[in-house]
Amino acid sequence: MQGCFIVSDSVFKRYRNFLKNDAVKFIVLMGIVSLFADMTYEGARSITGPYLAILGASAVAVGFVAGFGELLGYLLRFFSGRLSDRTHSYWAITIVGYFINLLAVPLLALAGSWETAAALIIIERVGKGIRVPSRDVMLSHACSQVGHGTGFGIHEALDQIGAILGPLIVAVVLFFNGNYQIGFVFLLLPATLAILVLLISRSLYPHPHNLEVNIIKLDAKGFKKAYWLYVVAAGLIAAGFADFALIAYHFQKVTLFSAAFIPILYAIAMGVDGVSALIFGRLFDKKGFSIIILVALISALFAPFVFLGGFYMAFLGIILWGISMGAQESIMRSSIAIMSPIQRRGSAYGVFNTIYGVSWFAGSLLMGILYSFSINYLVIFSVLIQVISIPIFISILKIRKTQEKN
């Protein structure tokens, strides 16, 4: 019995020391920023579709606004990543991006037309595109102390808590008030908290690069072959990874789940995403790059379950979709940090995010077209294009093993 207390005390001290680590504190602080930020814009995204419709937008306009906003946000990551490397103004770019990203949401309450609301929705995505590469570079410095997979996993888990809470808050507001504008006004609170915690983080850790302990000596003049192969492979996974909007459309069309239950499925997927990020992030630190092959296999499996299965199979497919999303968010960001020189890490994240986002947009568009012809075609495309990424990941693994030997 005394031995149990000794073990428990040892575990407690280990985790207490872990939490005292400055790198962990920084990761958690930035995770809290993401938690409040996700509450803001994920809460908004849960109602922007019907809000635009009420303001007079057509279905085509709604689809264009959502798709174009995402595409523009991802394209901007290339330029913001390069800018952050050239200026080293990681905090300034991150803060500007968050201000644009978050303040556009409550302003939607003042939109008098669907065109104004559409512009604000696109501006919100632009803000996210500006901030992501710089923020991830700063996080990568801290993650080098605790393990990139673990660090990014913690951040993603906190991020997804916000992604769950935001839509639930809006649902409660609508239930008691029924007014979309009031819903957007309520989202000003988490937006303000996100910016407040962000500024506190900036004050406490003005130089996150000092948290970097594993300086990787890579050629700063350009990215190596393994990096470019990795970008291509990740782009293939993105192209075959169906957006939840298409999944929800399918569920509603075939009446597999009730309209009220579909948002709950999304919340469940986001919860699985957060847990998956922690688990796979930790596995990445322990097992290395090879774990990405398992992620690719899981990602390739969700489409047959979601689009061809019945109630229980589709539910399992949503779980697989959530697992894959969380694993990608933690492992892929970790891999970029490991494979890129510290001097060009902002550009590395920018290039990766741009290609990943464009691939996802193009793949989603193609799968939407395939869906109108045959669901089977969609499933075949989704599975095959993701499976093609596996031999590329294997070749990257061989390159990395060769480099380690040399």
UniProtKB/TrEMBL annotation:
<dbReference type="GO" id="GO:0005886">
    <property type="term" value="C:plasma membrane"/>
</dbReference>
<feature type="transmembrane region" description="Helical">
    <location>
        <begin position="226"/>
        <end position="251"/>
    </location>
</feature>
<feature type="domain" description="Major facilitator superfamily (MFS) profile">
    <location>
        <begin position="24"/>
        <end position="403"/>
    </location>
</feature>
<feature type="transmembrane region" description="Helical">
    <location>
        <begin position="88"/>
        <end position="111"/>
    </location>
</feature>
<keyword id="KW-1003">Cell membrane</keyword>
<dbReference type="InterPro" id="IPR052425">
    <property type="entry name" value="Uncharacterized_MFS-type"/>
</dbReference>
<keyword id="KW-1133">Transmembrane helix</keyword>
<feature type="transmembrane region" description="Helical">
    <location>
        <begin position="23"/>
        <end position="41"/>
    </location>
</feature>
<feature type="transmembrane region" description="Helical">
    <location>
        <begin position="348"/>
        <end position="371"/>
    </location>
</feature>
<dbReference type="Pfam" id="PF07690">
    <property type="entry name" value="MFS_1"/>
</dbReference>
<keyword id="KW-0812">Transmembrane</keyword>
<protein>
    <submittedName>
        <fullName>MFS transporter</fullName>
    </submittedName>
</protein>
<feature type="transmembrane region" description="Helical">
    <location>
        <begin position="377"/>
        <end position="397"/>
    </location>
</feature>
<dbReference type="InterPro" id="IPR036259">
    <property type="entry name" value="MFS_trans_sf"/>
</dbReference>
<dbReference type="InterPro" id="IPR011701">
    <property type="entry name" value="MFS"/>
</dbReference>
<dbReference type="InterPro" id="IPR020846">
    <property type="entry name" value="MFS_dom"/>
</dbReference>
<feature type="transmembrane region" description="Helical">
    <location>
        <begin position="257"/>
        <end position="281"/>
    </location>
</feature>
<keyword id="KW-0472">Membrane</keyword>
<dbReference type="GO" id="GO:0022857">
    <property type="term" value="F:transmembrane transporter activity"/>
</dbReference>
<feature type="transmembrane region" description="Helical">
    <location>
        <begin position="288"/>
        <end position="305"/>
    </location>
</feature>
<feature type="transmembrane region" description="Helical">
    <location>
        <begin position="53"/>
        <end position="76"/>
    </location>
</feature>
<feature type="transmembrane region" description="Helical">
    <location>
        <begin position="157"/>
        <end position="176"/>
    </location>
</feature>
<feature type="transmembrane region" description="Helical">
    <location>
        <begin position="182"/>
        <end position="205"/>
    </location>
</feature>
